[in-house]
Amino acid sequence: MSIFVNFMIVFWGFLMIVTMAIGGYFMFRKFLKQLPKEDGKSIMDWQEHYIEKTKNMWGLPEKELLEELVSPVPELFRDVARQKIAGKIGEVALQKKANKITQDILIEGYIVATPKRDHKFLKKTLRKKNIDTAPYQSFFEASKDDYAKNWKSKYTN
């Protein structure tokens, strides 16, 4: 065999190993989210719980705004992102004992649910819709890492 064929076989093998490792990484992350925590429910269970509890609280304008906010997410991952963000918005709404998901609750929940790098798009979208971002500045200043650990106590302060 020629050197070129040998090189292509090695390259193809390496490429297959890398793609399998990447796929395995994402599958393992999903698996970890399905594992029950101390309270007996997993992260995914809580997301579904909050979505189920608040599904009647969503109005059409809020649904459309959520769709617009998740639009930059690649279509393959959009459903997962929408569910995660809607779950966190539902959690915020239930924590505030709201009867309806308002634009304020939606924006606050979106900020809490997304990493700091996504806030730039949110600010741009809010400016386009003539929505003032000043009331949400404290949420923008806190990073995703700050929310991940004990976010409820920091959120209520």
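That was protein one. Protein two is written in the same sequence-then-structure order:
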Amino acid sequence: MRSNHVPANQEPPAAAEQSCQSVVTEWNKQKPWALIADKRIDRVSREAKFAMQKRPSWRRKRLWGQYGHVMDNVAAAKSALCGLSYWPPWRIARDRESVQTLVHVAEVSVIPLLTETQLWAEMPRIQRSIDDYLPKDDLRRKWVDDCLAGRIKKCSPSRGGFTDDERERLASALNWAYYVNSLNRARLISFHRMLIWATVALFATLVALSLVQVFIWPQVPMVCPGKCPTSNSGTSRRGDVALVEIFGVIGGTLAAVRAIANARRAIDPYSIHAAQAFLKAMAGGVTAVVGVMLLSASSVSAQNSVQVLSFAIVFGYSEELVTRMISKREEALLRSAVPSVPEGERS
């Protein structure tokens, strides 16, 4: 805890210098969410310094400890942003979540420090966050809504501003809103990991099917509804299953492109749409093999290998029927974690 006994004319200390001079590296400049997080951290730092400069000396003494707390949070958030790792892949979501949490902590901690003018300027953003993340029946949200609507006279704009106790209540409401949002983001991260493991499992399935056909049953016409993909005859060859899988992946990729084009636009720090696209592509390969195998077991026959591969693309595209529930779940989780526009305000 920093001492409150400082000279009245002493200026607030500068924020701790970080080991990396540029918080947003050349790699992170390509990431919108990282740039937004960096700007939010800088805004908190500037607001804290400006608030301390505008305070009278006696008030500055009382707020010195709070200012030190804010600067510590700013330094921690910048350090986390500097230390972002993009390898191994399973660390990406964890590191990004740490940055977002520290940014939220810094934004909450600066509220008791702001001047009245600064606080009222920030109220639209604060109220938007509270409305987005807290349910309508939450008492904290009700208090903020009543206060800003003037139904609580002592904290309405016409009565001057917020007291210290009311600032604490406001900070508590925003802190709880960010906590609820962090739970939603945790669910999104968990779902993202499930998509990754499901993609790995489907890829392993495709490899296993290809190896079985190449080394164990090379002469069995597994995917030959009249004609085989590689021989254009009824004779099976090694690589028939692999070729069907490739064209099925193409069909699944086309379905993934369509799904991404129709997806909700939002800043997605966890690359949930990319994970879903890879899952759809792998699922397309599996559904193509299963579909062509069913055709081989039925009375439907292909005239040539081109028709077989066309069937593979169609069955690969039809994976949308299998992954539709996954897409709906993804949209629901993304909406709860990134609920509203403007997109740049949610990360």
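The radius of gyration is 28 Å. Keep this in mind for the problem set.
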